[in-house]
């Protein structure tokens, strides 16, 4: 028997970005401000929901859970693929709680989002990021929430968060547009 050689891993740039993105989690004052602004945006957007029940309205605004977010990402065309017509549902951003166990549950989301150029916002909280995400959509917990691009007040809050330097408390935490 011969010696086994280790294979060197030449990870694509999206996987290298994924490693650095997971290290850049939002917590503390930045997270509190984001969650506060999102709650205000949700309450403002609810006023224009018409005759829809709250549960149906939330499903129209958000993709809730790892499976649903993954399904929507799979249906979105890759960023360099011009052959497919644009899908009717596009994700503006994805919120991911990094306090899940095992980590493999959400590990694929940043990689898939990178190929579709959807920014990923990692949430880390001592009280449990999954509890904070769940509270946004009236659930006990949620590991990931995709925000659908619908042009509502919720989308304006996310745009402000992604683009406005004043919204962020410190410059050491960055969101990478993947």
UniProtKB/TrEMBL annotation:
Residue ranges under compositional bias (Polar residues)? 10-20
Keyword Ribosomal protein found:
yes
Query: What SUPFAM superfamilies does the database record attribute to this sequence?
Result: L30e-like
Per the record, its GO cellular-component terms are: ribosome
Record region (Disordered): 1-20
What InterPro entries does the annotation carry? Ribosomal_eL30-like_sf
Name the keywords, alphabetized.
Ribonucleoprotein, Ribosomal protein
Mark the transmembrane ranges: none
Which PANTHER family does the annotation name?
A: OS07G0636400 PROTEIN
> Would you tell me the protein name for this molecule?
Ribosomal protein L7Ae/L30e/S12e/Gadd45 family protein
Q: Which organism is it from?
A: Zostera marina (Eelgrass)
Lineage, top ranks? Eukaryota, Viridiplantae, Streptophyta, Embryophyta, Tracheophyta
């Amino acid at each position: 028997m011969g010696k086994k050689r280790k294979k060197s891993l030449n990870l694509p740039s999206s996987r290298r970005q994924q490693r650095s993105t997971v290290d850049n989690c939002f917590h503390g004052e930045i997270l509190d401000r984001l969650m506060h602004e999102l709650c205000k945006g949700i309450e403002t957007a609810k006023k224009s929901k018409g005759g829809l029940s709250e549960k149906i309205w939330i499903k129209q605004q958000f993709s809730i859970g790892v499976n649903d977010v993954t399904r929507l990402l799979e249906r979105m065309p890759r960023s360099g693929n011009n052959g497919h017509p644009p899908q009717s549902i596009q994700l503006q951003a994805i919120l991911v709680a990094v306090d899940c166990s095992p980590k493999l549950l959400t590990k694929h989301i940043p990689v898939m989002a990178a190929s579709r150029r959807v920014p990923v916002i990692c949430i880390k909280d001592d009280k449990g990021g999954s509890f904070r995400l769940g509270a946004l959509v009236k659930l006990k917990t949620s590991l990931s929430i995709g925000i659908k691009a619908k042009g509502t007040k919720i989308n304006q809050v996310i745009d402000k968060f992604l683009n406005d330097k004043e919204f962020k408390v410190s410059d050491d935490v960055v969101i990478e547009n993947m």
